[in-house]
Amino acid sequence: MTWTSGPYMRAGIELDRISVEGIRVTAHHGVLDTERSTGQVFFADVVAHVSTRAAAAKDDLSKAVDYSEIADRAAAVLGGDPSYLIETVAEHVALAVLDMDGVYCVEVRVHKPQAPLHVEFKDVTVAIRRDVRTGGLWADKRIGSSAGMPDDPLDLFAQAPVRDQFDQRPVRAVPALLALGGNIGDVEPTLRAAVDDLSRITGIDVIATSPLYASTPVGGPPQPNYLNAVVRIRTILSPREVLGACQGIEMVHGRERQEANGPRTLDIDIIDFDGAEATASDLTLPHPRAHERAFVLVPWYHLEPDATLPGAGPIAPLASAVHTTVSVVANPWPSPSRS
Predict the structure, then answer these.
(1) Which helix (H) or strand (E) element contains residue 336?
(2) Span 165-330: which CATH code?
(3) Which of 170, 224, 238, 249 is the most buried (most CB within 10 A)?
(4) What pTM value is reported for the model?
């Protein structure tokens, strides 16, 4: 029987798939004493949902998910401590593979072709699908993924558990402001693609974008200058869902968090979310440093000169104080001929 792997979405973007099929191990899983003493052959098929873009773009092995490790981890579980149920074996294989960096969803099928049935048969299988939320790894792997987003592509309106006000969805669409930046790779096309990615997310409408600006790095190691813009959206998602969507888009475009204030392919920050003022371990609104960042204030002023930053007041005087530290690269942006 053909096994079909379904799509897995991150921030409205379908991830790629790495498949390892037919992993064969002799093991001792089962309920009967003869199964546990004599053993029998088991097979496993594993599909890992990952983003291959960063590795493929530069043929970089260090950014690839190692399919040999996927096979090794599955085989170690398959041939490890006996379980009564192959359902348990499948669950443990899924968790072992999900624990790998860069894996956000895994599908596992365990075969028991020598199961002690009383009729002639070809195979017995159990197939499961787990992701970093349902697999119990959600909190640990939130960074770089779409935290809080409903990952089942067949359930677009599912909502993560409500822990605090950042998980509360608004009763109607509300405005939010996002800041985009990057200084590694083909930055302008990446920022343009990120705006397009945002517009593809269910529950987010992109309303307007600022001109594109160039800015010098603030803190961190020596690195290239940045390109920056701000984007006005309206959304019916919660703040944490928008945060997760932004981080998911960053991940797709090769964002790595290795050094504080270090260079990056893409950075998307929530600057303001409908005037909310609150702090949690993973999100502070408004952005705590927006009032002093020229690469946020000046593009924002150009887009919305009468805007107000909660807790800091009108952005006009704030932008005026720092406008000489950034320069316009493209206006309008994205260019109508390229959007």
Answers:
(1) none
(2) 3.30.70.560
(3) 249
(4) 0.59
